[in-house]
Amino acid sequence: MKYDIIVIGGGASGLMAAWSAASTAARKGLYARICLIEKMPRAGRKIMITGKGRCNFTNLKDWEAFAAHIRSGAQFVRPAWRSFPPQRVIDFFESAGMPTVVERGDRAFPASYRSSDVVDTLVRECLGAGVKIETEAEVSAIARSASGDAPSFSVELADGTVHKCSRLIIATGGLTYPGTGSTGDGLRWAEALSHHITPTFPSLTALVPEGYKDGAPVNPTMPHHIPRETPLSEFGQKLCGVSLKNIGARLLVQDTLAGDEFGDIDFTDGGIEGPVGFQLSRKAVKSLLGGSKVSLELDLKSGVSLTELSTRIKELWEQIGRDPRSARLREKERCRILLGKLIPWELIPAFMAAHPEVITLERRSRTDTKVWVNLVSIAKALKCWRFKITGFVGWERAVVTAGGVATDDLVPKTLESRKISGLYFCGETVDIDADTGGYNLQLAFCTGYLAGQSAAASIS
Question: Whole-model pTM?
Fold first, then answer.
């Protein structure tokens, strides 16, 4: 089969690239044969699980505020962002019949909060624009024809079928959630076609504290990778399921401050997650892989100083002592009551296990032991609960891939390869990644849009 443009990869960037190419060709009055090839049974599998199925598909911040959340390739991706900014992404979906809503933090969602609506809209718009979508079609090889001046590519499928095209867009994603089809195919093809690949590693993933899991890292190709299915330790079981809101977090690399965030954290079967955990995970993972020592300090009472908190704890302790209901209680039981006034009840067992210094035993004689509750230690622990980070969850549940096709090998204004004419890259295959909050899907959509537009515009 011969096509003008082939897009490999039916994720966010690939679907947008195919639609953009078809729409651009139509505006030029050209009849363009465009095919999107997806190896999974259905396009958009990874979109379906985005935002726990709610799909935060873009973020409405202006460029300066948005760029502050891009961790790699910010200046490179600027032309793509401006070609298809967040408001235009929203307009695209709404004009296609999908209502949207904008929530706190400028995050945009489908009004239904169903990620399937985003996928269905993209697929419907592609088909309506004349794009042929082939699913369950795995690409086994890509070849470039050296004959003639015009670029030509051969795309061979696993069943032996060969498609040819003059323009090729690779939008196969990175390595995260391999069950959705993201297995790094595009990176291997890019490298085989002489492109540089910036080393990849998981980002926006769970960080695993020391003693949280029973197993140790076992993957020699990715040190510190602790699979999510590794059983929780007794300490991990105490923490798993606890969510903390409005806390401060400090990332320390080699005991030096490397980042700080404020917001929410979740303790899950993977480790430390939630918005704050994810924001700090990129630098933490990269540091661990580089051989550095990494720690995370949580401030559970970031709104007050240590002095103010110490005073408040002392007052609460005195109140408990005056309460008749506490008269017959042991010191340890009074301590639990005190902690219950300071932190969620479900967090107390893990807090006590991590900070045995809050209870002091004073042996006065062979038969007389006095139990002391160390109020100062409680205040210090609440202001600085330190976790030594020993590992992270890998590709199986990381949200995005950091690294990819080096941006120096691509033209920012078109996303065409500097090495091979007629070849384009977009989305997570490229070395661009950002924070959680709709930023990564916006990068996928805008780079897909620009790649598709550029490929179609180059057809005579």
Answer: 0.94
